[in-house]
Automatic annotation (TrEMBL):
Keywords: Ion channel, Ion transport, Membrane, Potassium, Transmembrane, Transmembrane helix, Transport. Signal peptide: none annotated. InterPro entries: 2pore_dom_K_chnl, K_chnl_dom. Its main location: membrane. It comes from Psophia crepitans. It is found in: Membrane. This is KCNKI protein.
Length: 391
């Protein structure tokens, strides 16, 4: 019996993990599929368009020919004047006159464009030219940006949970180290520890009466009545929660013995996971300085890797480029020679946008708290002071 029960437990554990990860995988997979479909669409529409040489292009060639002819006829002409004329003429040129659309709108180039659309980065290096491409770009962004924000919120919960737990463990470790330093070479109030252990050992397995709860707590007679009532109420709530947990464990055992009932339970859990999106992000409370350090380290790591394939970028330029990308500013002043490699770096972009989003959320909360303090302080200053009359 033991040998058969162990594989069943393993299967049940795998199913629980699968249904817990399922909502997060759905969001990421849907975003990947959406990006691939957009890449196929834009590569077909923009890549197969015909380049019509307009009258402006012919005028551009005529002006360029006249400037070059004047330079060859008059070699004594000032070089600065020639540079100014060429610069003015090149400013009127359009990129489509000299670039083949199929070279830009390949599958990977279109995929890179789609990522810049729904992440709201928008470098501006690649943009639709045809009327159909522009309309489809607006429609694509209309659905892609909310989907991207949903993925950011969902993954933000995961990162917020990891950050909050790591910060709590760090604080516990720090308090233990300080306590060990203070208690080194002394008994450190062993009597108080024994009292707290005795107080924590309140019987919860069996129902307790109010008198038993009161008797288990020494020194309750010396406290005021309202504090005693509060303690009694908290103990009763703890006992009720413990019984609720035991009842849930019993129902889980029944469902595990009956797979038909377990399906409804797992589906309700999946729905609950969808409903809990964004809750952990609201509960996050870590120092803003810690988030700034995390962002700096995260961008520095990418800035050290990026110049390996982008040879024109050094560490400072790569750091600037990653910051502009993760904050979704996207000036487009830094051109990438190999956007395919950076496209495979998309997971880094999404996680980095998560970290920046969390930092902005914490900064927003701190800013609101600061405004509240300032407003309350100004309100107290404006309040008329109470006059104290002599008795």
């Amino acid at each position: 019996m033991a040998s058969t029960s162990q594989p069943l437990r393993g299967k049940r554990a795998c199913k629980k993990i699968f249904w817990a990860v399922f909502p997060h995988a759905c969001f990421i997979l849907s975003l990947v599929i959406y990006a691939f479909l957009g890449a196929l669409m834009f590569s077909h529409i923009e890549g197969n368009r015909k380049v019509n040489l307009s009258e402006e292009y012919r005028k551009f060639l005529q002006k360029l020919w006249h400037i070059s002819r004047n330079l060859s006829d008059n070699m004594t002409e000032n070089e600065e004047v020639f540079k100014e004329k060429i610069h003015e003429l090149l400013n009127t040129a359009e990129r489509d006159w000299f670039v083949n659309p199929k070279d830009i709108w390949t599958f990977f180039g279109s995929l890179f464009f789609c990522c810049t659309v729904f992440t709201t980065v928008g470098y501006g290096n690649t943009y639709p030219v045809t009327r159909a491409g522009k309309y489809l770009c607006m429609l694509y962004a209309l659905f892609g940006i909310p989907l991207m924000f949903l993925v950011l919120t969902d993954m933000g919960d995961i990162l917020a949970t990891l950050l909050s737990k790591s910060y709590k463990e760090f604080r516990k470790l720090q308090s233990k180290i300080l306590a060990s330093k203070l208690c080194s070479g002394s008994t450190c109030n062993k009597g108080d520890e024994l009292k707290t252990r005795d107080q924590s050992k309140v019987a919860i397995n069996e129902p307790l009466t109010i008198m038993e709860v009161l008797k288990s707590q020494p020194g309750f007679k010396r406290k005021p009545i309202k504090y005693r009532n509060a303690e009694i109420f908290e103990m009763l709530i703890d006992r009720e929660n413990e019984y609720m947990k035991q009842a849930r464990n019993k129902t889980i055992e029944r469902w595990s013995s009956c797979p038909e009932l377990a399906r409804g339970k797992t589906m309700s859990r999946v729905i609950e996971n969808f409903d809990k999106i964004g809750k952990q992000l609201e509960k996050l409370d870590v120092p803003i300085v810690l988030m700034v350090i995390v962002i700096f380290v995260y961008i520095s790591c990418a800035a050290a890797i990026l110049p390996n394939w982008e040879t024109r970028l050094d560490f400072q330029e790569a750091f600037y480029f990653c910051f502009i990308t993760l904050t979704t500013i996207g000036f487009g002043d830094t051109q990438l020679e190999h956007p395919k490699f950076f496209l495979f770096f998309s997971l880094y972009i999404i996680i980095g946008m998560e970290i920046v989003f969390i930092a902005f959320k914490l900064g927003q909360d701190r800013l609101i708290g600061l405004y509240k303090k300032v407003i309350s302080f100004c309100g107290e200053k404006k309040m008329p002071s109470k006059k104290v009359y002599p008795k």
